[in-house]
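Action item from last week, closing it out:
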Amino acid sequence: MYRRLHKKLTTEAKKSYYKELFDSGINSVKQLWNNLNHMVSLGKKKGSNLIPKLLLNNIYIEDTKQISDYFNIYFCTIGVNLQHTLKQCNADDFKAYLPNSVKDSMYCAPVTKDEILKIITKLKNNKSPGPECLTPKITKICCWCDN
């Protein structure tokens, strides 16, 4: 009984922790990826991921090549198998749960001249020019000459 309660509380605590970690609006994209990598431990190998045997159709398979072949077949056919289990839907089904869109409308927060100047001054001079062929250095010179 204690084990079940402990597992339940631990699971709820983990859910709460990760929900708060990923829901906070202060995460940058880089921080989000760092959190994901930390959560699934992609950066560190904790041990071997070797599967010693696999039960398939009531037969144990111990050959690593056969095990990897069966995993490849399984994961390569997930999409097709899932497609067969889902019901077909019409192209207009999304309209039932999405609100009508507002056409020809877009809102952008007002930007001040100082905000633009601050961004331009942070540009690194050694970066390549954009599609208009203006380097950051030329952009800075033009910006300061205009003031």
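Closing note: The chain has six helices and two strands.
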